[in-house]
Amino acid sequence: MLIVKKFGGTSVGDQERIMNVARRCAEEYSKGNDVVVVLSAMGKTTDILLKTAREINPKAPKRELDMLMTTGEQTSVALMAIALDSLGIPAVSLNAFQVRMETTSVYGNARLKKIDKERILHELASRKIVIVTGFQGVNRYEDYTTLGRGGSDTTAVALAAALHADACEIYTDVDGVFTADPRIVPGARKLSEITYDEMLDLATCGAGVLHNRSVEMAKKYGVPLVVRSSLNNSEGTIVKEVTSVERMLISGVALDENAARISVMGLKDEPGIAFKLFNLLAKNNVNVDIILQSIGREKTKDISFTVNEEDVENAIRIIEENKERLTFHEVTSNLDVAKVSIVGAGMTSNPGVAAKMFEALYNVGININMISTSEIRITVLVKKKDGEKAMNAIHEAFFGNVD
Amino acid sequence: MLIVKKFGGTSVGDQERIMNVARRCAEEYSKGNDVVVVLSAMGKTTDILLKTAREINPKAPKRELDMLMTTGEQTSVALMAIALDSLGIPAVSLNAFQVRMETTSVYGNARLKKIDKERILHELASRKIVIVTGFQGVNRYEDYTTLGRGGSDTTAVALAAALHADACEIYTDVDGVFTADPRIVPGARKLSEITYDEMLDLATCGAGVLHNRSVEMAKKYGVPLVVRSSLNNSEGTIVKEVTSVERMLISGVALDENAARISVMGLKDEPGIAFKLFNLLAKNNVNVDIILQSIGREKTKDISFTVNEEDVENAIRIIEENKERLTFHEVTSNLDVAKVSIVGAGMTSNPGVAAKMFEALYNVGININMISTSEIRITVLVKKKDGEKAMNAIHEAFFGNVD
Questions:
Q1: Where does ATP bind (chains A, B) (predicted)?
Q2: Which residues of B84-99 are buried (b: 16+ CB within 10 A; e: fewer)?
Q3: Whole-angstrom Cα distance, residue A298 to residue A209?
Q4: Three-class DSSP category at B197
Q5: Could you tell me the CA-to-CA distances from A95 to A77, A138, B165 in Å, in that order?
Q6: Mean per-residue pLDDT, A324-335
Q7: Which residue has the higher pLDDT, A179 or A102?
Q8: In chain B, what are the domains?
Q9: Taking CA atoms, which of A111, A119, A363, B103 is between 20 and 30 Å from A217?
């Protein structure tokens, strides 16, 4: 069996934790399995590096930030190889140059294109544990790139896909995927299984356990994912195409407090306006989340959408700069929003789900600012201060109150 | 003009110092010159990384130590590019993979073989300051290697040679090359010029300002070197083939307290014995410094030589393991030695130099343990505790006591 194991920054936060991860990998190796380990930078390393850079230059070039940040994972992988050696396990650490981790050229938010697996297969063939830097890639200019938030998950899934791994295990500091964030909803339950689509919606809605690109990629290549704890041996949550267990109505409730709403009012009501607007934002690397279009006054229309808080300033500037081309009345933003979503493949065949969610919010007196639905997801925007309260109310309505 | 500037770890030890170096490079750039900057890791970074690694595994594999340490220079170069950007100067940082810095495969002590200058020339052509990681290379397995102590000097000289630079400036925390280490000999004077050969002998004898491999390479390719301070604008010391200023009898006095003596006693007196012994040590990467052979008893000979303290254990083990092949009586080591040398092209035509040195030692009651001479160098071994005293006595004899 070939197993890809990914450990996040917390799991390799200090020497002791590195040794723990090494022991865990050694155990897998000693069963006779081939093991590929993907690591993030240790603990807060990336944040510290970014802080130093910004102290020198608040507008540090993104190319150089990537050059700087990639040292973080390289440190982790080298120390892990050193730790495995101390356990008598042959290991080799490899960075993005050494595994030819090709990405698009966008610094800070690149996408993986191709992995040259030759070196990895060669090292596995000589019975070494192969430790690969997560989060980083190399673009066509032979420059380092990084994959954006949670990018190490994507690295792990991409490697699992390229190597046709038998499993891709994502280790975190929680026991698996929960029906809601257990830090906010004390009664949250661990799911034993979840589908790619549900996981994808949960990830996009801020559930934070897995990076959404990694789930997309796992779905595309059929990579069997397991989300489990690096701190204990509990079974974790399996993410796959179709789940076998009897399904609950919904799988989980997610909260994203990092969202902001932008509204473009009084757009000309003619074909292609939405295309122009979102194409413009995409070209400028602004990730747009939920979109809502409504009819405005006097043959105009209003378009609202959500973005990450940190993209608001940039998005507004881009829209303002293109006022003539887009022909709108005004653009406004609202940062006082939280995004609360419920996700579940079960809801397609149960029309009462949305009503049940809205009722839960009504019962605790929370006003809904905006609603958006997909086949397996319902998202509402509420005031930021209401986010956690909304999440708890909805969770109780669907899952009841444990103990 | 194309100028290569190398700054050591102390010069880039914190954000403020990084900004200072950036300003200095920006000044050169603004004169219209092409600038290539070579950097070491910040301050004590390399030591801290090594300490962490050794805490995890005292016998950490050398390949992984190199993988770990190379993050140090990459951090420096990225931060320097970020600092230059804040001054409005276009800059790009490059690591050993990006400039194809090919080395031999020996981890921890590799030698440079070839540099692909295409990328650097391309970046210079677009009027960028190019910042290259010192100390590191890539071997034929596509693995990181490091060049050993002072390796960044070698990187700088190699780049200057490959790019046919007009000057290679080595910045340190002293004002240039002195007649003796000013921290030990208060009356030491700065030299305005020195030859490659003298510099080489000073470096080999532990004067520490420049790495000896870098001087060898500068001599081989005729790279004009300047050693100067990163803290002020004083002129520094020019290192070149022939000096133009009127020469003093000797150029400097050097002290190396890191030496140890190994003696192999009772070797069979037959041809090829010295070859066998030193070939064996070379193959095992033990650097041998001065060698002395004397006639032993009963048709045997004794060979003594000095190595770095850290190589003693290894060297003794290798020799013991080959006792049958080498046929000797016993091997002993002495760590209580300091190496004191005088260096100067002037001494070839002045037969009294050695006598003057020995007299100076006799006058302060220091016993000489071993003597070795070359055309432009005389080295003596004394007890470790006598090292600094010997250096001062010799310096006073040749340069007089300043004030």
A1: 6-9, 172-173, 183
A2: bbebebebbbbbbbbb
A3: 45
A4: helix
A5: 8, 10, 32
A6: 90
A7: A102
A8: 2-173 (3.40.1160.10)
A9: A119
User: What does the block give as tokens for A300?
Assistant: 């105009």
pLDDT score of B198: 86
CA-based radius of gyration for chain B: 22
ipTM confidence score = 0.79
Task: Count other Cβ atoms within 10 Å, centred on residue A228.
Answer: 21
pLDDT tens digits, one per residue of A361-374: 999 999 888 888 87
Interface of B with A in 102-131 (CB under 8 A): 119
Instruction: List Cβ neighbours of B223 (8 Å cut-off, separation of 6 or more).
Output: B157, B160, B161, B165, B168, B217
Looking at the complex, report in whole angstroms how far the Cα of residue A285 sits from the nearest Cα belonging to chain B.
22
Query: How many Å lie between the alpha carbon of B291 and the closest alpha carbon of chain A?
Result: 37
> What one-character-per-residue DSSP string does B310-340 give?
GGHHHHHHHHHHTHHHH--SEEEEE--EEEE
Which DSSP letter does residue B12 get?
A: G
Taking phi over 0 as left and psi of -120 to 50 as alpha, with beta for the rest, A333 belongs to: beta
Which residue numbers in chain B have pLDDT < 70?
204-208, 243-248, 296-297, 348-349, 401-403
Q: What is the CA radius of gyration of chain A?
A: 22
Q: Looking at the whole model, is its pTM more than 0.90?
A: no
What's the distance, Cα to Cα, between the start and end of chain A in Å? 41
Asked if A86 and B143 come within 8 Å (Cβ–Cβ), the reply is no
A56: left (phi over 0), alpha (psi -120 to 50) or beta: alpha
The reported pLDDT for the residue numbered B403 is 41
Distance CA B27, CA B144 (A): 33
Burial class (CB in 10 A: 0-12, 13-18, 19+), B9: buried
Chain A (31-90) residues lying within 8 Å, Cβ to Cβ, of chain B? 49, 52-53, 55-57, 59-61, 63-65, 67-68, 70-71, 74-75, 77-79, 81-83, 85-86
Q: Considering chain A, what percentage of its residues have pLDDT values greater than 90?
A: 58
User: Rounded mean pLDDT of A206-226?
Assistant: 85
Mutate to test the interface with B, among A79, A99, A136 (most CBs of B within 10 A): A79
Average pLDDT of span A213-237: 90
